[in-house]
Amino acid sequence: MKKILFLIVLSLITSTISAQDYFPVNENVKNKSTNYTAFTNAKIYVTPTQVIDKGTLLILDGKIIAVGTTVSIPKNCLVINIEGKSIYSSFIDIYTNFGVEKPKAISSFEGGQLYDTKRKGYYWNEHIRPEINAFELFKYDEKKAEDFLKIGFGVVGTHNQDGIARGTGSLIALNNAPNSSKIISNSISNHFGFTRSSGTAQSYPNSLMGMMALLRQMYYDLDWYKKGNSETTDLSLEALAKNEKLIQIFASEDKLNSLRASKIGNEFNINYLLKGFGNEFERIDEIKKTNAKFIIPINFPEAYDVSNIFQANQMELNDLRYWNQAPTNPKVLSDNGITFALTTDKLKKLDDFRTNLLRAIKLGFDKTKALESLTTIPAQMLGKSNEIGSLKVGSYANFLITSGEIFSEETLLFENWVQGTKYVVNDGTIKDIRGDYDLTLDNDTYKMKIEGKIASPKVNIKSKEDKTVSSKLSFSNNWITLILKSKDTINPSINRLTGYVENTSNLSGKAILNNGKEVSWSAIKTAPFVNKEEIKEAEKPFKVFPVTYPNLPFGNSQKLASQNLLFKNATVWTNEKEGILQETDVLVKNGKIVTIGKNISDASARIIDAKGKHITSGIIDEHSHIAISRGVNESGHNSTAEVTIEDVVNSEDINIYRELAGGVTTSQLLHGSANPIGGRSAIVKWKWGLAPDEMLYKNQPKFIKFALGENVKQSNWADQNPTRYPQTRMGVEQVFTDYFQRAKEYDDAWKSYRANSKNTKAPRKDLELQTLAEIINKERFITCHSYVQSEILMMMNVAEKFNFKMNTFTHILEGYKVADKMKEHGVGASTFSDWWAYKFEVNDAIPYNGPIMHNAGVLVAYNSDDAEMSRRLNQEAAKAVKYGNVSEEEAWKFVTLNPAKLLHIDDKVGSIKVGKDADLVVWNENPLSIYAKAEKTIIEGVVYFDIEKDTIQREAITKEKNELISQLLEEKNKGMLTQEPIKKEKKEYHCDTLEEN
């Protein structure tokens, strides 16, 4: 016990000695100030809502010592009277890469595609780099710091903006004083994003869905690792575990990606701070439901130069709208109670920050909220409210001195103090010389108008004959210099005037005339300066166009509601044993078909006269690739069963509306065919205007995309460096066999663990093998891209080896050769009506393929695999009549009931039957006719397409576009910066589309 007490006392003595400040310092002159500085008679914004008039701010050694109206000023104090000026807390930008360089980009063409990591001791994927620390890469950039200081920032968060898991961020004080302590916190945040790392050529993931799957796997691996199940050390997972308690910042960079990131956060109980894009206003209800806090950029788009009518015509309405609406984003977020901080990220130049912020304020963003988003809110987000973001006692002396209210157009920022170090932005003694004057020079009189900015005024001088005199004005440190030059180009005369400004109502000084004579000059103010721009803007308020759902052409002004509908006297194609019914009524209530018959009445229903019309169930496209964000293929591995299209449904795709106009109500969105084992699919209902998750078919059966043939063995990848296994058709078979064997062993391991988990370590949760095990356990169905008969037979043999059945062969253009074997196996076919000879392996395709398989007893559907064809699937169905003599009724089932059966959703859709979902289409005539048009497309009782409404919308779109172009022309006439219109080519996905992310 005595020994322990002795060690404690010794420790205290040692600590005290170590703390004594008597060692000489040889590195630099030590200069710890013991003098106070007091700023008096200022309007002090302690916080955005706590304001002190005629207050005093007292600082010492970089910290705020006191603030208020009754502050006692110490003897050793420098007192600075700033009467008439205001003091605010310096701004904070959480999201920058200040002082941290991005790694040099490595192209896959430099060293070939990399499928496995070359790093030892780290995570298996090189886009996951949580072990990177910004403070280890950080180099203070004094010039860049000055750019931040000039616009009011005193503190920035910085990190490595590269990769999916990016590592920790640091908090930096923009203190340009030599030898100052610039890093407030080494590691304050942990960063993530939906981008690949430029520092690696590792091919996986190369799609957004792959990135989401990788993040999920990373978090499952982290949980497994923390529980001590791993036998090796993983430095990446160690870093993730260490940094779990830091602020988790996710760069979503898009409104829909914010929903996706939030979804991952909810799955793993992580409250991400989301770095947005600026388009959150377009999905504000869904953004609000995330309950997330945001970091919001204000890099509003420049106006487009639409003076050329041909260029103007190629502009998309949504791009014009975004220019018009983007500055309202801060107001919309604020009005909806969403907490956010502002960032300078993505600005072309930092000087634009104030300009854009003032623009947002003019459009309704509350000034107090704006100040909070730059001070108290980012400080709270970082857990640093006691140090930054306010002028409370104990905080860093980070503050701004301004000429007035900080967000006034005319206000000047004089000084930006960071940790007690002054940075001068504008001369604080500068006088406002703007206004109208009578100028007298050597007995000549002139009219002089000085306007522009206080710190950089401009001059216009006219002679008594009202002729403009060439002139130039310089104004610095309250010294005014004027040069008057005659317009005589042969014998020009130049008069030079200078003077010190003491009284802005009466300017005076000395002048040197062209002949060398020195005279006096004077200028008497006759009228104060009037900002004509502000008057002009007040006279004509800027019109902001309303947001639609989605915010595209043909978007809805409000989210649509279900209706009770009664269709009278229609020709009804039931797809049931009743067949096609003439002069029949259909009653829809609460999104369901409730009655089919004659002379139906219901007082609550809207009556639609359907005499002469045809009503069918909605078309179902079994194979589609529209409305998918950032990649239809995850081609980074030969098996990507862990990825899912459900993660990347794009509700903002105009093709959705076009599908509805063609009578399509349901589609299966499939992964592409770049690898043998692709990703999981998404079955969607095209509920135009709703968010992605609201489009997903409820309780949908589980599907996955497999593929055979040229695409998976990279036959047509050209210069994209095809080195990934497999490279042959026999290799493709081996991939399936190997993966199913691994999945079986994985499933067995988990079953064994669940039976006896006490004395064994848990197996690693593997999303890829778990998905494949679902196939073996008959919980997930396969849709398989296929062409050649030998591979079709091979795939069925592999399935039978592992005791499951193939569900659907899609494309299946040689299905007619093996229809009997397909019937025996029990697999269905989703084929093209008449595609052939578009690549080598389809040389044997024939248009009779579908009818032959149908006649052999195979369940057959026609699909699109194409955004354009999907709009005309009714005509594709008609080709079964043309080529195979299939009856019209059976042919119609090729695009309705049969795909519903292939997708195992025929209990809800695919036919007109009491109790089924009211997914209906009203046609102007026989739906198999090339003249047929969908007049109304209805999903669960909601009319999502109406041809009459469509006509009205087309006129409204033209009018809106013309109004927006007029606004843009006005912006150009004002002299605002403009950008050249660029026609954006939308990339339409097909099975073999590859995309770099």
Topology:
Blueprint: H1 2-19, E1 36-47, E2 50-60, E3 63-68, E4 77-81, E5 86-89, E6 91-96, H2 108-111, H3 134-137, H4 142-150, E7 153-158, E8 165-173, E9 183-193, H5 208-226, H6 235-242, E10 247-251, H7 255-267, E11 273-275, H8 284-289, E12 293-297, E13 303-304, H9 309-313, H10 317-325, H11 329-335, E14 340-343, H12 352-362, H13 367-372, H14 376-382, E15 399-402, E16 413-418, E17 421-424, E18 435-441, E19 444-452, E20 457-463, E21 468-476, E22 479-485, E23 494-500, E24 506-512, E25 518-528, H15 532-539, E26 565-573, E27 580-589, E28 592-597, E29 606-609, E30 614-617, E31 619-624, H16 654-661, E32 664-669, E33 677-680, E34 682-685, H17 692-695, E35 703-707, H18 729-755, H19 767-776, E36 781-786, H20 789-801, E37 808-811, H21 819-825, E38 828-831, H22 849-855, E39 860-862, H23 867-870, H24 873-884, H25 888-893, H26 897-902, E40 920-923, E41 934-939, E42 942-946, H27 947-973, E43 978-979
Parallel strand pairs: 1-4, 1-5, 6-7, 9-10, 10-11, 11-12, 12-14, 13-43, 26-29, 26-30, 31-32, 35-36, 36-37, 37-38, 38-39
Antiparallel strand pairs: 1-2, 2-3, 5-15, 7-8, 8-9, 15-16, 16-17, 18-19, 18-25, 19-20, 20-21, 21-22, 22-23, 23-24, 24-25, 26-27, 27-28, 30-40, 32-34, 33-35, 40-41, 41-42
Helix pairs in contact: 5-6, 10-27, 18-19, 18-20
